[in-house]
Specification:
The chain is of the alpha+beta class. It has helices at 7-29, 32-37, 50-59, 64-77; strands at residues 84-90, 96-102, 111-116. Strands 2-1-3 form a 3-stranded antiparallel sheet.
């Protein structure tokens, strides 16, 4: 059974669309810390509206770093600050593959390289 989209979920989805687009654009020309700090403010919405955020990130097929930046901002706005983690894992031929996630999510066998704290709640 499909649940009906309520206004808070739609607002969260709209915020996630804008935030992910902004984070992606910022990452093209600015350092990570700038991209993390310069997102549109998270609207005050109930936690259940997070499904709108998840749906947008999934449908837009955002890269893991953009997903982590957007999710970190959402979590911090809901009093659940989590660190953003970037790690690498070896591939055949001596190459590396990178991945970004939030602290507490599965690291999938990646070796941690960098952590960034959650932005202050606005």
């Amino acid at each position: 059974m499909r649940r009906r989209l309520d206004p808070p979920t739609l607002r969260a989805a709209w915020w996630a669309f804008r935030a992910s687009r902004h984070a992606r654009a910022q990452l093209e020309t600015h350092p990570l810390d700038t991209a993390m700090a310069d997102l549109p403010p998270v609207p005050r919405l109930p936690e259940r509206a997070e499904r709108g955020v998840d749906a947008v990130l999934r449908m837009r097929r955002e890269k893991c770093l953009v997903q982590a930046i957007v999710r970190q901002a959402w979590e911090a706005a809901h009093d659940r600050p989590r660190e953003l983690v970037i790690g690498v894992a070896p591939l055949e031929g001596g190459q590396l593959r990178a991945h970004a996630w939030l602290e507490g999510d599965a690291d999938l066998g990646f070796q941690e390289l960098l952590r960034r704290g959650a932005p202050p709640r606005t």
